[in-house]
Amino acid sequence: MLFHVRMQVTIPDSMPTERADLLKSNEKALALTLQQSGKWRHLWRVVGQYANVSVFDVDSNDELHQLLSTLPLYPFMQIEVTPLAQHPSALAAN
Amino acid sequence: MLFHVRMQVTIPDSMPTERADLLKSNEKALALTLQQSGKWRHLWRVVGQYANVSVFDVDSNDELHQLLSTLPLYPFMQIEVTPLAQHPSALAAN
Amino acid sequence: MLFHVRMQVTIPDSMPTERADLLKSNEKALALTLQQSGKWRHLWRVVGQYANVSVFDVDSNDELHQLLSTLPLYPFMQIEVTPLAQHPSALAAN
Amino acid sequence: MLFHVRMQVTIPDSMPTERADLLKSNEKALALTLQQSGKWRHLWRVVGQYANVSVFDVDSNDELHQLLSTLPLYPFMQIEVTPLAQHPSALAAN
Amino acid sequence: MLFHVRMQVTIPDSMPTERADLLKSNEKALALTLQQSGKWRHLWRVVGQYANVSVFDVDSNDELHQLLSTLPLYPFMQIEVTPLAQHPSALAAN
Amino acid sequence: MLFHVRMQVTIPDSMPTERADLLKSNEKALALTLQQSGKWRHLWRVVGQYANVSVFDVDSNDELHQLLSTLPLYPFMQIEVTPLAQHPSALAAN
Amino acid sequence: MLFHVRMQVTIPDSMPTERADLLKSNEKALALTLQQSGKWRHLWRVVGQYANVSVFDVDSNDELHQLLSTLPLYPFMQIEVTPLAQHPSALAAN
Amino acid sequence: MLFHVRMQVTIPDSMPTERADLLKSNEKALALTLQQSGKWRHLWRVVGQYANVSVFDVDSNDELHQLLSTLPLYPFMQIEVTPLAQHPSALAAN
Amino acid sequence: MLFHVRMQVTIPDSMPTERADLLKSNEKALALTLQQSGKWRHLWRVVGQYANVSVFDVDSNDELHQLLSTLPLYPFMQIEVTPLAQHPSALAAN
Amino acid sequence: MLFHVRMQVTIPDSMPTERADLLKSNEKALALTLQQSGKWRHLWRVVGQYANVSVFDVDSNDELHQLLSTLPLYPFMQIEVTPLAQHPSALAAN
Description:
34% strand; 31% helix
C-alpha cells in the first residue's frame, strides 16, 4: 500500500555540529536499510530545500507511523502523509 | 530529469456529460502513451480526491510544459510542479 | 485500518431541487449501508457547516478511495483524508 | 456532547529530557484516566506527526476547556476544537 | 453554554431580487425571534462586510446546529463556530 | 463604539515562572478594572487555547490601542481587531 | 478617526456591460462626493489589480459601514478594514 | 511615486532592554527626519499591533529599499511593499 | 525601474472560443510591442500553469499600472507586483 | 534551462556578527562567480525584504540543487524554485 510522504527538515542553528552529523548519518543508514527492504520505495530531493518527497510501500498505517517516527531526524521534521491509490490510467500496478 | 507534478482536476458541473467523457477518455489515452514512452514515469491517485501525484522524466522544462499543457484536461487542472534532484541517501539513481 | 475523513459539501445553488434531493437520499442510503458493514465506523456533523467528520475502517487505500469516490455527492465534496495509527496512550485498540 | 479535538505537540529541542519524559508520562496517565471516565472517547495518532485526533464527550464547553488546559503537555500544544452534532445519516446516536 | 459564530454571507449576483429579498426578510424575522428567546445573545455587523459576529447561548451542540442550519440564508453562508468557556479574569459569568 | 478583539497569548517556555506569574496577575487586575469601567464589555475564553475573544466599547481607535498596548501581556499577544457596527437585525442597540 | 480600507473588486464577466458601466460611474460619483466631504481622505490604486487602498476619516464604525455598504460596487467587493491610531513617531496628527 | 508599506515589528523577548530602547529611539529619530523630508508621507499605527501602515513618496524602488533597509528596526521587521498608482476616481493627485 | 510581475490567467470555460482567441491574439500582439519597446523586459512561462513571470522596466508605478491594466487579458488575470531594487551582489546593473 | 528562484534570508539575531559577516561575504563572492559563469543569470533585490528573486540557467535539476545548497547562507534561506519554459509571446528565446 503506497503513501506519499513529504519531509521538511529544520535543524536548529544552535545544535552542536557533532550531534547534527550523528543524526544525519544515522538517518542515512536507516534510509538505506528501509529502501533495501522495499518499504521506502522512492526518495527524491526537493530542489532548493532541505526536504524530500518519498513514497513508502507498507502494510498498514501503523507500520508507516512506526517507520517515520523512528527516523533519527523525526523530531526536526514537518511531515505530510498522503495515501495513494491505483490510478485508473496508470500503466503500472501500484 | 525528474519533476514531481500534482494535478487537481475540477470539471464544472455544468459541462455536458458527453464532452466530459470525451475529455477523460482522450486524457487516459494520452496518459497511457506518455507512460509507455517513459516520460510519465509514475501516476498515482490521491485517495479521496480527483487529483493525482505524478513523476515525469523529461529532458527540459519546456518539454514538461509542452506535455502538461497539451493534456486534454489541462484547462480544468490546478498543477503544481516541483523539480526533483538526486537525494544523497537514495539507493536508486533518479 | 482507520482513516480520518473530512467531507465539505458544496451543492451549486443552480442545481434543480429534484436532482439535489435524489443525490442526498442516495448518499444517505449508501452511508447507512457502509455503516452497517462497519466500513464507515463514525459519522459526525460539523456544527454550522454542510460538512462531516468521519472515521473509516478499511483494508487498504484503494478500498477507501473506491468507497469515497462512489458516494453520490462525491463530485460536490472537498475531502481531506488523514491516515490514523494506534496512539500509545489510547485505551482502546484501533 | 461531542467535540472533535486536534492536538499538535511541539516540545522545544532545548527542553531537558527528564522534564520532557515526566511531562509525557503524566500526560499518558491523565489520558488513560480520562478515557476510563468516558470523557476522552476516542484518541488516534495522526500518521507521521506528533499529533492526535480525539473525540471528547463532555457536558459543557467549560468542562472541555478545563480538561484540555490541565493536560501536562497543554503549554506545548496547538489545539483546534470543532463541536460535533448528530449527523442525519449516522446509524449510531452521538 | 456560549458559542462564538462568525457568518459570512455570499448571495450569487444571478439570484433574482425577489428571492433574495424574501430570504433576507425571513432571516431577519427568525433572527429577531431567536434573540427574543435568548438563544441568539449577541449579533454585530462586521464593518465593511456582509458578515456578522454573533454569540449564541444554547444547551448543546445539536441545538446550535439546528438553529444555524435552519436559517434561511444558511446555504449562502460560510460559518465558523468557536466554543467559548468562562474566562478566569471575566467579571461576568458566561 | 464596539470592537471585536481576539487575543492569542504565547509565553516563551524559557520565561522564569515568577515573571510569568507577575505578568498574569497584573493582566488580571487590569482586565477587571477595565471591565468595571465598561471599556472591556465582554471577555470569553476560547476553548482549548490560551486565547480570548473580547468586545471593547471605546470612544476611538486611539483609546482602544492605548488600552490594548498597555496590557501587561501585550508583548506576548497576537491581536486581531475587527470594528463592529449595528446589525440591522439586532434586537439590542450596540 | 482613521480607518485603512482595502477594496478588491471582482465584477463577473457575465454582467452586461451597460450595467457594469452604470455601477462604475455611480461609484465614481459617490467616491468624489465622499472625498469632497473629507470622509474618504485617501484613495490610491493598487498597481496591477482592480483594487484600491483608502483611508477613511469617520466619526464611528457605524458611519464607516454605512458609507462602504452603500457604495454601488459594494456587492462585488472584498473589503478589509483596519482601524488606525496615532503613531508615536508620526509627525502629523491623524 | 507612492508606495504602501506595512511594517510588522517583532523584537525578541530575550533582547536586553537597553539595546531595544536604543533601537527604538534611533528608529523614531530617523522616522521624523524622513517625514520632514517628505519621503515618509504617512505613518499610522495599526490598532492592537506593533505594526504600522505607511505611505512613502520616493523617486525609485532603489531609494525606497535604501530607506527601509537602513531603518534601525529593519532586521526585526516583516515588510510588505505595495506600489500605488493614481486612482481614476481620486480627487487628489498622488 | 524594475518590477517583478506574476500573471495567472483564468479564462472561464463558458467564454466562446472566438472571443477567447481574439483576446489571446491581441494580448500577444501587445506583448510583442511592449517587449520591443523595452518596457516588458522579460517574459517567461511558468511550467504547468497558464501563468507567466515577467520583469517590466518602467519609469513609474503609474506607467506600470497603465501597461498592465490595458492588457486584453487583464480582466481574467490575478496579478502580483513586486518592486525590485539593485542587489548588492548583482554583477549587472538593473 | 531557466529556473525562477526566490530566496528569503533569515539570520538569527543571536548569531555573532563576525560569523554573519563572513557568511555574507562568502555568499557575495560565490554569487559573483556564478553570475560570471552565466549560471546565475539574474539577481534582483526584493524591495523592503532580505530576499532576492533570481533566474538560474542550468543544465539540470541536480545542478541547480547543487548550486543552491552550497550557498553559504543556504541554511538560513527559505527557497522557492519555479521551473520556467519558453513563453509563446516572448520575443527573446530563453
